[in-house]
Amino acid sequence: AAGGGKMGRWLGLPPHMVMIMIGCGAGAGIAGIFKSPLGGALFTLEVMRLPMTTVPVLALLVCTLAAGMTAYALGGFTLDLSMGDASAAFDISMLPFIIALGLVCGGYSLYYSYIMKAVGAKLKSVKRPLLRNIAGGAMLGLAVFLFPSLYGEGYGVIGHVLNGNLEAVMSYGPFAGSGSGVWAIAALAAGTVVLKCFATSATNNGGGVSGNFAPTLFAGCMLGLLFVYVVKGLWHVDLPVGFFALMGMSGVMAGVIRAPLMALMLAVEMVGAYSSFFPLAVVAALSFGIVRLFTSDDYYSGRLDRPNGLMSKIVNNKHL
């Protein structure tokens, strides 16, 4: 976004063209980071609300396709995450569980957003930066000590879960040596999803940067794992771990970011699970619907900072 805005001003473009350049830059950045051209385009259209007219949409598609394919080529034509054969695990008999997961993702998204705002407000109330750094660091350090899977961006853990390699996830931290029992794995996943939003907010508001997209993907993956093992423990039903973890990624991102189409395409393109499009769409739509049901209309009317106010603020920011 910053690069697009700078280039637009350097070329002396009018404000509406600078807006298009900002949207194209932001979408291209997402497309390159996640190797997801359509996910990047839908981010700009859903979150930044780029006008859906011919010129902006065509420019956006060209930029995101170029960025995504360039990153894919420079990365050795490989995806960052792989699922093996788990992406073909959908069966119509699992539809009730898929619907239930979508509802769970919506409820968790509300919790995630609430904790993010609450922790952020508490840390911002600490006026001295050093004390705020210490408070945020202490909160993050405690969370990582209890659940080491929270360390880093989480892609390694996501890769293990998507491929059902849970021994690697259980091999370190306080849970090491607890075995691979149903409730031991469920406890690990539950603690991780409960504390992930605390760790993310403590990082973002305590002086660091953890972003928001990767944390929601990680939280969704672990929520899918938790769902599978709770179902297995209570009803003795075996569900494919990787498949439900992928759906959880789509559902939590859709609910937290409030962009179901972007979340759907991002999850599908990141692992190449195009055969799982329908169940991921169901989970993303249900999660977003739950969040929309319990979220004030002001959030979507443009009276708040996003989504409509975000683009105009970037355009008018002279320091960009």
Give a brief description.
The protein is mainly α and 320 residues long. Helices cover 71% and strands 0% of the residues.
Mean pLDDT: 89
Helix content: over 70%
Give me the oligomer status: single chain
Helix tally? 15
Strand content: under 5%
Radius of gyration: 20 Å
Report the order of strands and helices. HHHHHHHHHHHHHHH
- CA(first)-CA(last) distance: 9 Å
The unreliable regions are 302-309
Q: What's the number of extended β-strand segments?
A: 0
Q: How does the major sheet shape up? A: none
Based on CA inertia axes, which overall geometry fits? globular
Topology:
Elements: H1 2-10, H2 15-34, H3 37-46, H4 54-74, H5 95-124, H6 129-146, H7 155-162, H8 166-169, H9 182-205, H10 213-235, H11 241-257, H12 260-271, H13 277-293, H14 298-301, H15 308-316
Helix pairs in contact: 1-2, 2-3, 2-4, 2-15, 3-4, 3-12, 5-9, 5-11, 5-13, 6-9, 7-10, 9-10, 10-11, 11-12, 11-13, 12-13
Task: Walk me through the structure.
With 320 residues, the protein is an all-alpha fold. The protein is built from 15 helices and no strands. The chain is globular. The longest helix has 30 residues, at 95-124. Helix 2 (15-34) packs parallel to helix 4 and helix 3 packs antiparallel against helix 12 (260-271). It starts with a helix and ends with a helix. It has helices at residues 2-10, 15-34, 37-46, 54-74, 95-124, 129-146, 155-162, 166-169, 182-205, 213-235, 241-257, 260-271, 277-293, 298-301, 308-316. 71% of the residues lie in helices and 0% in strands.
